[in-house]
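Model it.
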Amino acid sequence: MRKLGVTLGAQGEFVAARELQQRVVEEMRALWGDEDRETLRAVNNLAGTLSAAGNLAQAESLLQETIAVSCRVLGDQHPDTLIAMGNLAAVLWQAGNEEGAYALQYQVVELSRAVHGADHSATEVAEATLAMMERTIETWARPL
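Modeled.
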């Protein structure tokens, strides 16, 4: 069901995706608790759907919660924690908090380099996202 919710969201079926993902999160929390790795992934997926649907405040709140639990349970250098941090950076960026997004994405890059190494695909994606942010910020800073 979790993957179906992600697929529905990718197809733009945000209401159906959100409803299904919320159900999955509720069931996983009831079965395995809030600190289970798969529960954290399900909450991260729900936040992604909310973000794509424009519910940025709700997505931000879920991601902050997920990161806090993930850091405590899995550690701040765990790949799932880094994914959630990168997702939060994207939500912050989308919400117009460029400074917060950039700072968090920079942290994701540094941690990803330490965890995965410079040549790992996760590090390369994090670096590309940071570079996009830098280019956009530089473009905004240029005089007209």
